[in-house]
Amino acid sequence: MNNFKKFAIWGNTEKPKFWDTLPGILDWAKNNEVKPYLTTRISKQFKQTGYPVIDSADDFINMDFILTLGGDGTILSTARAVAHRNIPILGIHLGDLGFLAKVTLLDLYNRLDQVVTGDFLISEHMVLEAEMSANGKTIISHVLNDVVVDNGKTHRMVTCMLEADDGFIGKYNADGIIVSTPTGSTAYSLSAGGPIVEPSVKSIIITPICPHSLTSRPLVVPDSSEIKITFPNDPAEDIGVTLDGQVFHDFKYDAVLKVRKAKYTVKFIDFADCSYYGTLRNKMGWGKRGEE
What's the pTM? Predict the structure, then answer.
């Protein structure tokens, strides 16, 4: 028997399926003597009262796990909120295509029962730290999937000079550059022609976006590497940096971007019968030909 007694509920409140599912989860929690906590956003929209509320990210420290209902974007926002607080996430898939959330509504309560009885695994996923410096200011952010550099609001190519641990990699003329974790290798990086990298592989993936060269190809480097990106073009132009597809920053070409492995990982609740390769086959059609 597991000692889990408290859990937080985080979800995409714009999805009707979330509100259809929430009452059943609360009933399950009551029947299993596990106390649910709602985020402020959920609490404000929920008609029932009396449930404790998560007022700040530090409140997650007191939770045994976080139940996240939505798509991959919802899980990415949860991961950023949890950050270094070492609380495992159980992702429930509500959308049409989700890779990070392995649990569906069909097996939701069976999986919750497994959690409270201790029949689960914990998988740790690498996080990247992005350090963006420009105009004497530095912004540090963390991502579970990827850091994307592109041409901002223009339609011109961006020229990127890449280094790894102060060793010159190359000059890329492209629509942009994606620096991703293995977890993020099945997201934008895959769409741009990058490799699929199993999440336990300790690596960082660098994928150019539409490079203007036949020889610019994706590159996999050790997770101990620090990737440095600079921009030698016209300083009057802007570049864009997007974090996990959800947070965006504008910079001038005199900016310096450094990407490295973060000092913490994000933990997910997993199950022995959930295969990474099975997920690839079922959700992304991996290994299938044409319309088979």
Answer: 0.92
